[in-house]
Specification:
Blueprint lengths: L3 H4 L5 H6 L10 E5 L3 H7 L4 H22 L3 E8 L7 H24 L3 E5 L7 H13 L7 E8 L1 H17 L10 H7 L10 E4 L18 E4 L9 H12 L10 H6 L11
Parallel strand pairs: 1-2, 1-5, 2-4, 3-4, 5-6
């Protein structure tokens, strides 16, 4: 974590939350479902696309804050396979905003040594969008700092379906034995292969579901729901989510040291005593 003054000024509301965060217990990987842009715009009687435009400032602030905190990986759910069902004009505007963001923010990524990565099926995206994505990927390839991962045209079910097909094809070619397929193999061959699963998932706007996002990777992730709409989500809300995360006990199906003490067996178990 950088010096506190670089994250929040003394006396600011964010600083009070920041002071309670343990820098040694930060989540390594934070994933975010950015939800509520349309409702934000509707509440202000504006077109839905204005909500998406307003959400870009939240993206900037959360990327900046997470990198300053020292969070290693930030994954943002930007566009799902289901989002193609939205009005054509809205989809076109979303893609235009993505290209605009990449052009304007690339220098910030480079100045802050941030790596850029995408997950999802990019083949369906317009060639102009893929060109901007490829440029950002190539430009940040040598960066060694935090990873910012954007999920585009992404579906957790599709990711798993593609992996099953990949395994079946490899087995037909005699390149893969059934015994070789274990959790470690699956993890390496997912879109997120090579990086740890999320420690914390944040979903904005009050909805309490994961919406086909990282279905395998979220198996033991702590989930934080907030009613704040994404365009209103700021530094203080991220800090509050991290503080909530640190107040939880992650046991991964096991027992805490205290509980283990409670269940210590007495007598000879084999004798039934």
């Amino acid at each position: 974590m950088r010096h506190l003054d670089e994250i929040a000024e003394p006396g600011a509301p964010e600083r009070a939350v920041l002071n309670r965060i343990d820098p040694d217990r930060l989540p390594r990987h934070v994933a975010v479902i950015m939800d509520g842009n349309g409702r934000w715009a509707k509440a202000r009687r504006r077109p839905r696309v204005e909500g998406h435009r307003a959400g870009i400032q939240s993206v900037r602030e959360i990327i900046d804050t997470s990198s300053r905190l020292g969070i290693e990986i930030l994954t943002l759910y930007a566009f799902s396979t289901e989002n193609w069902k939205r009005p054509r004009y809205e989809v076109i505007t979303l893609m235009a905003l993505l290209k605009e963001y990449l052009r304007k923010e690339l220098h910030t990524f480079l100045e802050n040594n941030l790596r850029f990565r995408t997950i999802g099926r990019l083949d369906r995206l317009d060639a102009s969008v893929r060109k901007e994505l490829d440029h950002a990927l190539e430009a940040t390839a040598r960066c060694t700092g935090p990873l910012v991962q954007i999920a585009l045209n992404y579906s957790g079910r599709q990711e798993l379906t593609d992996l099953v097909r990949q395994a079946a094809a490899a087995a037909e070619r005699g390149e893969l034995r059934a015994e070789a397929i274990d959790e470690e193999w699956i993890g390496r061959h997912l879109d997120t292969g090579g990086i740890p699963d999320p420690d914390l998932l944040i979903r904005t706007s009050g909805e309490q579901r994961i919406s086909n996002f990282l279905l395998w990777q979220l198996a033991y992730t702590e989930i934080y729901f907030t009613p704040v709409l994404w365009p209103d989500f700021r530094k203080i809300h991220l800090l509050e989510a991290i503080l909530d995360y640190q107040q939880r006990e992650r046991r991964f199906g096991g027992l805490s040291p205290e509980e283990q003490g409670v269940f210590m067996p007495t007598g000879d178990v084999r004798a039934g005593t």
